[in-house]
Amino acid sequence: MKIYNPPLILQKLSSTFLHWRVDTKEREMFLTFDDGPTKGITPNILKVLEQYQAKATFFCNGKQARENPEIIEIIKQSGHYLGNHTYSHLNGWKTSAKDYLGDVKRSEEIFQSSLFRPPYGRITLQQAKMLNNQYHIIMWSIMTYDYHPKVNPEQSLIKLRIKAVPGSIILMHDSEKAADNVISILTGVLEYFSLLGFTFSSLEKVFPRKT
Ligand SMILES: [Zn+2]
Predict the structure, then answer these.
(1) How far is the CA of 25 from the centre of ligand 1 (A)?
(2) Between the CA of residue 112 and those of 17, 62, 134, 156, what are the distances in Å?
(3) How many angstroms is it from 195 CA to the middle of ligand 1?
(4) Which is nearest to 184 in space by CA: 48, 80, 59, 55?
(5) Selected residue with higher pLDDT from 14 and 186
(6) Has residue 25 got a pLDDT over 60?
């Protein structure tokens, strides 16, 4: 059984440095995409978002951003927001704080963002404290498991319809692994929650620039 919400205890323990949702009563939801940009996938996601006039946040890897500068430019020009997801998708639990920070810094110039999401959601307290001066560290409220070979989009959507509330941060992926599922899930979310009066914003308006 997949855990679609992060365990509450983890959310409470780490709420000083990590953001798991947006505090709002408005019917507003925050779509986020990790691990891109990816040719043939990110542009399709952008098209669907445009159809619904939805804005999103893309937590990109610096390495892939360097390889796909034209997609980064389109993301920016379309009014979406970029976040730093390290340069080489490091696992914080297996990386020294010094190396981790160095990898984040390597991406800084590309994204010029005050938002950071740790790959795999794995970050140590020390790393989080060090990044906290410069970044809002964004986790997620609901994981779609769009990358998982055993989760089909309909299962994922059923969970989302039950669990999403105003201020939810939804985690999807614009990566090869999620290619089979992400468009169906995204379209399903936009269709269903638009009818309920939800709007979809990037996280830029919620988290002010730190530097
Ligand atoms: Zn990732």
Answers:
(1) 29
(2) 20, 11, 11, 32
(3) 30
(4) 48
(5) 186
(6) yes
Question: What is the C-alpha to C-alpha distance for residues 80 and 172, in angstroms, rounded to an integer?
Answer: 15
Distance of CA 28 from the midpoint of ligand 1 (Å) = 24
> CA-based diameter of the chain, in Å?
47
Mean pLDDT of 47-57: 98
**Domains, the chain, ordered by start:** 29-205 (3.20.20.370)
Element (H, E) at 127: helix 125-132
Alpha carbon distance 149, 151 (integer Å): 6
Model confidence over 112-151: pLDDT tens digits?
999 999 999 999 989 999 999 999 999 999 999 999 988 8
User: 36 C-alpha vs ligand 1 centroid, how far in Å?
Assistant: 8
Centre of ligand 1 to C-alpha 116, Å, is 11
> Which residues have CB under 8 Å from 68's CB, separation 6+?
36, 37, 38, 39, 42
Distance from the alpha carbon of residue 106 to the mean position of ligand 1, in angstroms: 16
Q: Are 35 and 41 contacting, i.e. CB atoms less than 8 angstroms apart?
A: no
Distance 158 CA to ligand 1 centre (A): 24
pLDDT score at 209: 83
